[in-house]
Amino acid sequence: MMNHHDFQQDPDDDDGVMESLLLHDEPSNPLQPPPNPNPNPKPDHHHPLLPSTQSPKSPTTFNSFLDPPSYAEAIFTSFDSFSSSSSNGTNHSHHHNRNTLTDELPSRSGSGSVSDYLYIFVSDPQKEQETSASLVPGAATTFYTYLITTRTDLPEFGSSTSEFAVRRRFRDVVTLSDRLAESYRGYFVPVRPDKSTVESQVMQKQEFVEQRRAAVEKYLRKLAAHPVIRRSEELRLFLEAKGRLPLQKSTDVASRMLDGAVKLPKQLFGSEVATAGELSEVVQPAKGGRDLLRIFKELKQSVTNDWGGSKPLVVEEDKEFLERKEKLVEFEQQLSGVSQQAESLVKHQQDMGETMGELGLAFVKLTKFETEEAIFDSQRTRASDMRNVATAAVKASRLYRELNTQTIKHLDKLHEYLGTMLAVNNAFADRASALLTVQTLSSELASLNSRIEKLEVASSKIFGGDKSRMRKIEELKEAIRVTENAKTCADREYERIKENNRSELERINKERHDDFLSMLRGFVVNQAGYAEKMAAVWEKLAEETTAYSKEAAEL
Amino acid sequence: MKMSTAPYDLEQQQQHQRSGVAASSQSPRSPSSSTPFLSVSVTDPVKLGNGVQAYISYRVITKTNFPEYQGPEKIVIRRYSDFVWLRDRLFEKYKGIFIPPLPEKSAVGVLKFHMFWFITAEKFRFSAEFIEMRRQALDLFVNRIASHHELQQSEDLRMFLQAEEETMERLRAQETGIFKKPSDLMQIFKDVQSKVSDVVLGKEKPVEESDPDYEKLKHYIFELENHLAEAQKHAYRLVKRHRELGQSLSDFGKAVKLLGASEGNSLGKAFSELGIKSEILSTKLQKEAHQILMNFEEPLKDYVRAVQSIKATIAERANSFRKQCQLAETVKLKEIDLKKMKGKGCIDLKSWQKLSANIMRQLKTESEQATKTFESIVRLMNEEIGRFQEQKTLDMGIAFHEFAKGQARLANDIAGAWRSLLPKLEACSAA
């Protein structure tokens, strides 16, 4: 019997006795969940082979007694799966990779109905040591690695089995994130979890590692849900490549400085012949360390943009984009407000449940007391009434806690979207920086041309030509050629990013509509369902005490 | 509790619930009937005076056919300290009877409880609320006295209900009652409890009854107060939680409405509807909070007060027992004393006999009186405790029923409001 199991967990015997008073006296034992087993995995269950993660420990034994049974979930998850299956018709592969908590894991044999799937699980954190080639000899840094298990039928994954696993550390996640940011400018690339070193000092190690594990899993799943990024080489390598992650880390500042020092004279004098490799650098935003000159020039350009009297030569002209952007900004603001209030709502629902539970417990004690000390029949009657009140309050308390667990899940969508807004802002920043590069190169070209003009005018005044000036003009013409090539590249890049922005905006607008609708529906159904259950509990108590209302009316 | 508009009816309703077993002797709706009845209302709280000396006055309306009373109706103005006077007089005169409890004197104690209410509007509402709660409690107090078969005969009650205000003021000033301050009451409790520790420390011989049933009762009463106080504390917190959740839902609704407005399309409309529903439910939560306060928390508080009143009676019984024992001791000692005096021979036999007889007669009368008083207290308490238990089962039953109804109503309202949104959401997804 499940309840005996619960009692054995109670360190405080008294409370266990208290609850037993409630439960054993009832022939039908309404506090025990019906024997309907929950077919779906528990919400915190990430991997079938893993033990389920602990729910946050509550201080009172009473609360542990009130752990929500799974039967209510069985009733309400039907709503969630209903809404997600109803949207199955649309973006097929996308939805299958939502990895929503009610998704059932496909069997290993691979059901034919699901294809192009990419499921990711993060588990088994382990401590590892790395003897670092650091200043302190023999010092070892410890870090945690996580087992990343992937299950997929996508063709680009070369693995012979549909399921494989690698070990990665958080640093690898950072690398992946950086590489994706570079390769997918303009896309709404999901934002990786924080490094949060401060928190890691404050939290218990266990808690922190678990938090990180969950965050990494969430992040990877978001990547797998993105229609473009899920097919990326970077992600594939991360998930599949055994041993060390074969992605180049962002080069550290020192070496970049060196590179920069070598390249700097070339940039200054603009005499080199542009190579394809160097052209591709134009495609990247100016990075700290190298491209010093480029940074200075782009900074100068952006100042000109902001403060200069003349408009830059190239401006953001896509009105539709600007409108959408503004709308998104407003959306983000409102969303943030709703998210805050949602958090507060959840907290107050939690408090309500707790207080109701404490009230129930107080009545349990009263019941026990009056029963034991009863001399008059009226006391026994009262004890029985109080027991009914206690039962109702305890049940209601449990319902509040379950309600809250579900509410948190639904309203979590809000937080997710706030995360998405970060990705959107990054994508818009990509666009802005690409535009800045184009503007800078335009200005550069304009200034080069005007210098040539001036020189030509000057040299034409000299009879027989001006050898030094002619040489200078040739150099400048060469610089123009290089710059024009670069500008072509930059233009292309800018257009590419613009297009990425546009397609992404369309994608998330559609998704957002569906997501929020399903969230609303889930929230409303949840609230209504639990309210109905609570009404039933209280109606029962009203019925049990109905004698008192009649008596009052009769007098 | 049916809420009817006529205040008279409401008073009647409340009285019906309060009177319990003793109600059968009254039929207040037929003032001209021959069965004796005494019906009282405490109404119309009005703030009088300024600043520090401000106080609340109440209209006390008495409808009766008791011969000693000025019938059929009399209205007087009373203030809280008048009620205290009545309680103290009854406590003194009717030892052994559980005097109905009074609500706490000032709002300060209550304010401390309410300290964490952060919204100014709440505070105002609470103070009007407090006044109303106190009025109800005072009304209950007087009616309980009026329906108690012994207490209703009290001359002090008649004074309270009938005397002119000036007379009342004079009486109040004369009061040399035991309960000048709450601290006096506390002192008595401490005396009762300190007796135990004194015995433990071996300070003095225990002058306590050795009745095991009575010991059990005392233990029961003291324990009961603790349990009830805890239940009442949580009931009060539940009221607060309803208010907080209501506020939270209201804020949530506002934020969701803003989001809906910025979205614009059908989804935006859905959000707006959600926001509106949230605000509606917020109001319902606030209402329910008030209901819980009045119909559930207050009866629990009343129960606690009643138990505290019983503790005062217990203390009184202990006093009386001690007095009885002391006087019995004194009689014995005096007899010995007088014998010694006789033996010493400093007084002639006849004078001694006269003196001795006078002294002993006086002492014996006192001793008998003390014994009678004590025995009367024991007898009355035995009667009272059974009645008390019955009354409390009834009172609590009503409170539980109202609580259940209120919660069920709230839950159904919530379910209804959310369900009504679903068709609108369906319309959105179809679009």
From TrEMBL, chain A:
Residues 438-493 form a coiled coil. Residues 30-41 have a biased composition (Pro residues). Keywords: Coiled coil, Cytoplasm, Endosome, Golgi apparatus, Membrane, Phosphoprotein, Protein transport, Transport. GO terms for cellular component: cytosol; Golgi apparatus; multivesicular body membrane; retromer complex. SMART domains: PX (SM00312). Pfam families: PX, Vps5. The lineage of its organism: Eukaryota, Viridiplantae, Streptophyta, Embryophyta, Tracheophyta. It comes from Arachis hypogaea (Peanut). Residues 52-64 have a biased composition (Polar residues). Residues 1-64, 82-110 are annotated as: Disordered. PANTHER family: SORTING NEXIN-RELATED, VACUOLAR PROTEIN SORTING-ASSOCIATED PROTEIN 17, VPS17-RELATED. This is PX domain-containing protein. It is found in: Cytoplasm; Endosome membrane; Golgi apparatus, trans-Golgi network membrane; Prevacuolar compartment membrane.
TrEMBL record, chain B:
GO terms for molecular function: phosphatidylinositol binding. SUPFAM superfamilies: BAR/IMD domain-like, PX domain. Residues 1-37 are annotated as: Disordered. It comes from the Eukaryota. GO terms for cellular component: endosome; membrane. Pfam families: PX, Vps5. Residues 24-37 have a biased composition (Low complexity). PANTHER family: FI18122P1, SORTING NEXIN. This is PX domain-containing protein. It comes from Arachis hypogaea (Peanut).
